[in-house]
Every structure is written in C-alpha cells, then in structure tokens.
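Write out this protein's structure.
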Amino acid sequence: MILITSLLLAIVSYFILMLLCTNLVGMVVRGFFVSEEIEKLKEGKDTLPLIKNEIKKSEFADNMITLLFAVISLAFLYALFVFINIWAVIAALFFMISRTPDLLWEIRNGKKITRHNMPKTPLYIITSIMDWLALPVIWYAIYTLLR
C-alpha cells in the first residue's frame, strides 16, 4: 500500500515541484539580464532625464525582486530538506539546473524554446534527462518519508 501511495504522490509532486522550481529559477535568472532597448535608452544622449531616472528606479526594483526570489528559492530548498528529506532537495535542484540553459537560450533569442527549435547539443540532452530523473528521485523521497 505504501508503494502505490508513494507512486501516486510522486506523480502529483513531480508536476507541482516542476512548476515551483522552474518559476523560482526563472525569476532569479531573468533578473541578471537587461533588455537591449533599456540599455540603449539608458545610455542615449537624447533620452529625457525623467526616463533615465525611471530606468534607475526600475533597475533597483528589479535587483530587489531578484534578491527576494533568490532568498525564497533558498528557503524553499531548506523547507524541502526539513519537511521531506535531501532527496526532495536533489529533485528540486534537478529541475532548477535543467531549466537554466533553456532559460538562457530564451533570453538570448527572445522566443520560447520548443521541441523543434531546441538545440540538440549534449547539454540540452543531459538537462532533458535530468527532468525525467527527478521523477524517481521524488518517488524515493516520498517512499522514504512514508516508511
């Protein structure tokens, strides 16, 4: 009975953990990049001082949001460790690490990554495997918790 229960919980937890981890890492990683249009406006000689001032305010807010979500991500990983176990943290890290190259590609190219336009390099193959490896790791985390 524990085996079936842990399997069902693992499947549900897989999707919840994937959603949470990819969004958390997305908020943190996107905070390190500024769009080219903003950079041009910030350094442009014909840009109004009011616009430059608003860009500075926006950069401060963006940095605070990035810092906030980095702290939330660390707190989330710590909570997984305390309330479940280290295997749940490993599964969450699998999701976070596997999302980072896709996110960087999306930021660089300005469009969502799909199965058709995804680069076929070894890095992307490894990160795709990491996504699927998270499922048995989550199952093991829940199974050891329920035993």
